[in-house]
Design goal:
With 221 residues, the protein is mostly helical. Helices cover 69% and strands 2% of the residues. It has a two-stranded antiparallel ribbon with strand order 1-2.
């Protein structure tokens, strides 16, 4: 009798995607602290700003995962996919290494302030939209969410993440973090958003909802 690949995978090692992601996000602050210590950058103000931003985001993500989890991360994956996911998430730590190792640019105070503002906007969009989605699905299962942040764009959570990771890249003032973000955006985020649109097309009201909203950025795309 034939055994499909999904069943075969679960006979060996498997782990929830959320466990892998939470593990990485939860130790981000520690990884940055270790880098600061390794390079003896205790007086590097930009490193500490980055520590607060990225480290804080990681802890907020873990809290979100416990309080209003996203079902898409509950799927179990095999060792190869878990390792690939962890490697991809570790790539997000690149700005931290650039900043503490002296390979980053030297952002002006006004740019640091703009980065913090962009980060705050991103945190609001990301977590508020995920909370809205979680509560809406709890109270109105099987209903298309077309109001609130989801009435502005169809992927406010991804827009929030884009703002967050752009703030990290801008703080480093180096091309490599932008390249990492672009690769993730093209290979992971865009296909995920397209798949979600295809899935939501089963709702009769989706056609009208799609016409009056943008995929990611209000008024643009």
């Amino acid at each position: 009798m034939a055994v499909d690949a999904h069943t075969e995978r679960h006979r060996g090692f498997s782990i929830k995607q959320s466990t892998v992601i939470d593990a990485n996000k939860g130790v981000t602050w520690l990884a940055i602290l270790i880098l600061i210590a390794a390079y003896d950058q205790w007086s590097n103000g930009i490193a500490w700003v980055y520590f607060g931003m990225h480290g804080g985001y990681g802890l907020l993500w873990v809290a979100k995962s416990r309080l209003f989890p996203d079902k898409q991360w509950e799927e179990r994956v095999g060792l190869a996919m878990a390792a690939a996911t962890m490697a991809g998430l570790i790539a997000y730590w690149l700005p931290a290494w650039l900043i503490v190792s002296g390979n980053a640019g030297n952002p002006e105070p006004w740019l640091v302030g703009c980065c913090v503002m962009l980060y705050a906007i991103g945190v609001f969009l990301h977590f508020a939209s995920d909370m809205q989605k979680y509560v809406s699905l709890q109270l109105r299962p099987g209903t298309l969410i077309t109001e609130g942040l989801w009435g502005v764009v169809r992927n406010p959570n991804y827009l929030g993440e884009l703002c967050i990771y752009l703030s990290f890249a801008l703080l480093a003032l180096q091309w490599a973090p932008f390249l990492v973000l672009a690769l993730v955006f093209i290979t992971v985020w865009v296909p995920s958003m397209r798949r979600k649109d295809a899935s939501l097309s089963r709702y009769p009201e989706f056609a009208e909802y799609k016409l009056r909203t943008k995929l990611l950025i209000p008024g643009l795309v």
